[in-house]
Amino acid sequence: MSPSTVLVLSSDEVRSLLPMRDCVEVMSGALTALTRGEATLPVRSLMWLPDRSGLLGMMPAYLGIPRIVGIKVITVIPGNHGTPYDSHQGAVLLFEGEHGRLLAIVEASSLTAIRTAAVSAAATRALASPGAGDLAILGSGVQAVTHLEAMRAVLQVRRVRVWSRNEASARAFARRESRGGLAIEPVGSAREAAEGADVICTVTSSPDPVLSGEWISPGAHVNAVGACVPTQRELDTTAVAKARVFVDDGASALQEAGDLLIPMREGATGASHIVGTIGAVILGMVEGRLRSSDVTLFKSLGVGVEDLAAAHHVYRGAVAAGRGAQVEWGGQRHAAD
């Protein structure tokens, strides 16, 4: 590729070049790099639309190994659920760190769907009880699909129950995703899905709790994924208070994670209730589970270093395979005649 050429990578190329099992390892590497101080991660900037129907998120990051820098710019429109449009749409701009050259523009909807679930899988692998395999999924959209794939990548899944506020959507999800001898069970309530589950993934767009701590069995692990602003949460205060809580990034969680901030504002927990990051657990710096009966909670926000690492993995694969569209872009200084 010419130094002035940018590689544009579509959703099809992202899905082809970022298989879930590979992405779990890439995300584990990104989270441990962040813990080791090998990455820079400013808290993302969010700009709400005037009518609060959605937002524009800007997520910059830097990785030292390899030396790359970039930003994901993405719209989040919850009202897109049930329409032909993804709720998350945008692009990752990937730059090399030596000269600041733009390497690639990577489609972000597919990348976000895959890497978010892969981070949950990395957390589940680090925190879930040995032998966990009874899975509950609360939600039936894009993240439900990728989280099912991600959980199957790290668990021997024996049973899956799915619940959605839209019963027809849950039934359609169950029909579509049942395969390989595993029949997914659509259920009529979140409680029915969660009770007795070893692993619970909340992947809804609900601004209010859909999971009660009273329904979570001893020893269960929860991935709380859907809520990403300080005023919204999927878990009630009891669920958070009873759990050992882990995050992808502490600074981001203390500014954005409504699942954690609302119980803090209520006085039920404090910042010290966050045990540590998933990167620290993977590196052995922090204990995940102390007892088999512990409830563990990973509060996922999604941070820019995850997007950067995933985009770089896709970029490297595309270059090796000759994939993507090359666009002349510029960026070179031209000497005067």
Structural class, by secondary structure, is alpha/beta
Overall mean confidence score, pLDDT: 94
Beta-strand residue percentage: 15-25%
What is the number of E strands? 16
By CATH, the superfamily of the largest domain comes out as NAD(P)-binding Rossmann-like Domain
- CA radius of gyration: 20 Å
Summarize the biggest pleated sheet: 8 strands, mixed
- Give me the strand/helix succession: EHHEEEEEEHEHEHEHEEHEHHEHEHE
Number of continuous helical runs: 11
Query: How many discrete domains?
Result: 2
Q: Assign an overall shape.
A: globular
The CATH topology name of the largest domain reads: Rossmann fold
* Broad CATH class of the largest domain: Alpha Beta
Cα(first) to Cα(last) distance is 26 Å
The CATH architecture assignment of the largest domain turns out to be: 3-Layer(aba) Sandwich
Residue runs with pLDDT of under 50 for 5 or more positions: none
User: Roughly how much helix do the residues carry, as a percent range?
Assistant: 25-40%
Your description of this structure?
Helix content is 34%, strand content 24%. It is α/β, with parallel strands linked by helices. The protein has 2 domains: 5-111 and 304-328, ornithine cyclodeaminase, domain 1, CATH 3.30.1780.10; 120-299, Rossmann fold (3-Layer(aba) Sandwich). Strands 1, 2, 3, 4, 5, 6, 7 and 16 form an 8-stranded mixed β-sheet that branches. An 8-stranded parallel β-sheet has the order 10-9-8-11-12-15-13-14. Helix 1 (11-17) packs parallel to helix 3 (108-127), helix 3 packs across helix 4 (142-154) and helix 3 crosses helix 11. The radius of gyration is 20 Å and the shape is globular. The model has no long low-confidence stretch (mean pLDDT 94).
